[in-house]
Amino acid sequence: MFKILKNRKGVTLVELLAVVVILGIIAAIAVPTIGGLIARQQANADKATYNAIVDAAELYGGTAVFTLDKLEQDDFIDLKANTFSLNGTDNVLKTAVYIKIVGGVVRFYSDAAGTTATDFYVNDTLVYEKP
Q1: Band (46; pLDDT cuts 50, 70, 90)
Q2: Which domain covers residue 26, as residue numbers?
Q3: Which residues make Cβ contacts (< 8 Å) with residue 91, sequence separation at least 6?
Q4: Measured between alpha carbons, how far is 107 from 65 in angstroms, rounded to an integer?
Q5: In this structure, which of 3, 5, 28, 55 has its CB flanked by the most CB atoms within 10 Å?
Q6: Which residues are CB-neighbours of 112 under 8 A, at least 6 positions away?
C-alpha cells in the first residue's frame, strides 16, 4: 500500500501556492516598471516628433510665419498620428500652430503675426517652452 503512494507524482497545494506567490511578486515588480517604460517611450517619441518639426521648419526656411499644415502640405513632414496643443490647452488644429524662425531658432506662436510666443505640446508632452 505504501509503495503505491510513493510512486504517485503530482504537485501539492503548498507547492502550487508557493509558485502563485512568486508569480505575484514578479508581476508586482514588473507591471509598474513596464508602465513607466511605456510612458518614457511615448515622451521620447513626442520629442522626436518635435525634432522632426524643427528640422522640417529649418528646411522650409525663410523668415515668414508658416503653419504645421503648410509643412505637411508641402511634404516636409507627416503629422497624421499626432495631436498638438498650445499652452497646455485643448488640442488645436495644425492650422492654429504658427511657426517662425527667429535668429536661426524655430519658435511657436498662437497668432499668424508671430508676436505671441507659446508653449508647444505634442501628444500632451511639453516639447517647447516659450522663451
Answers
A1: very high
A2: 2-128
A3: 83, 84, 85
A4: 10
A5: 55
A6: 65, 98
**Mean pLDDT of the region 26-38:** 87
Please give the helix or strand (H or E) that residue 124 lies within, else none.
none
pTM given for the model: 0.72
Q: Report residue 25's pLDDT band, with 50, 70 and 90 as the boundaries.
A: very high
Average pLDDT score over the chain:
86
- Predicted confidence at residue 103, as pLDDT, reads 83
Our count of domains for the chain comes to 1
Question: 35-51 b/e with 16+ CB inside 10 Å = b?
Answer: eeeeeeeebeebeebbe
The C-alpha cell of 38 is what? 511605456
Radius of gyration in angstroms for the set of CA atoms belonging to the chain, rounded to a whole number: 27
Residue 13 grid cell:
497545494
Of 112, 113, 111, 109, which is closest to residue 130 (Cα–Cα)? 109
Instruction: Cite the DSSP H helix spans in the chain.
Output: 2-6, 13-60, 68-73
Nearest 5°: phi and psi at 100? Answer: -145, 140
